[in-house]
């Protein structure tokens, strides 16, 4: 079994790593303390890179990424300790909104949906 990445996957990983380049600690703190907890410009860039649409099937208007593709994206974002809430505002809504009218605007980054499982003051309750 070959576990090497394809050339396309390597290029994709490199672009995600460039996007997710480490952010200094103070900037991360300010971002997390903001009302939204994330940067809307970075979110739009995530959408333009197709990282939100990666989780949705092609039939639903997404990119139909494989679990390996999603793992590569999350590995790159985690490695950089990027502050982007891709799982709760991107991947899970993209999967849960299949067949819903709101999916297109979520995949494009125009709308932001949330899987409300990590709300402040509600963690682990």
Notes on the structure:
This protein has 125 residues and is mainly α. It has a single domain, classed as Butyryl-Coa Dehydrogenase, subunit A, domain 1 (Orthogonal Bundle), CATH 1.10.540.10. It has six helices and no strands. The mean pLDDT is 86.
Lay out the secondary structure.
Blueprint lengths: L6 H13 L5 H9 L6 H9 L18 H13 L6 H11 L6 H5 L18
Helix pairs in contact: 1-4
Short description:
The chain is an all-alpha fold and 125 residues long. Helix content is 48%, strand content 0%. It has one domain (7-107): Orthogonal Bundle (Butyryl-Coa Dehydrogenase, subunit A, domain 1).
Unreliable residue stretches: none
Give the oligomeric state.
Answer: single chain
- Assign the CATH superfamily: Acyl-CoA dehydrogenase/oxidase, N-terminal domain
The major pleated sheet works out as: none
CATH topology: Butyryl-Coa Dehydrogenase, subunit A, domain 1
Judged by helices, strands and strand pairing, the structural class is: mainly alpha
């Amino acid at each position: 079994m070959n576990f090497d990445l394809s050339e396309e996957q390597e290029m994709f990983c490199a672009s995600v790593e460039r996007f997710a380049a480490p952010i200094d600690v103070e900037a991360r703190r300010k971002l997390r303390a903001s009302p939204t907890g994330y940067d809307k410009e970075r979110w739009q860039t995530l959408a333009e890179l197709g990282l939100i649409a990666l989780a949705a099937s092609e039939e639903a208007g997404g990119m139909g990424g494989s679990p390996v593709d999603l793992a590569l994206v999350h590995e790159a974002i985690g490695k950089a300790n990027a502050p982007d809430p891709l799982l709760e505002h991107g991947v899970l809504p993209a999967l849960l909104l299949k067949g819903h009218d709101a999916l297109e605007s979520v995949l494009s980054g125009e709308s932001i949906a949330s899987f409300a499982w990590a709300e402040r003051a509600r963690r682990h309750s």
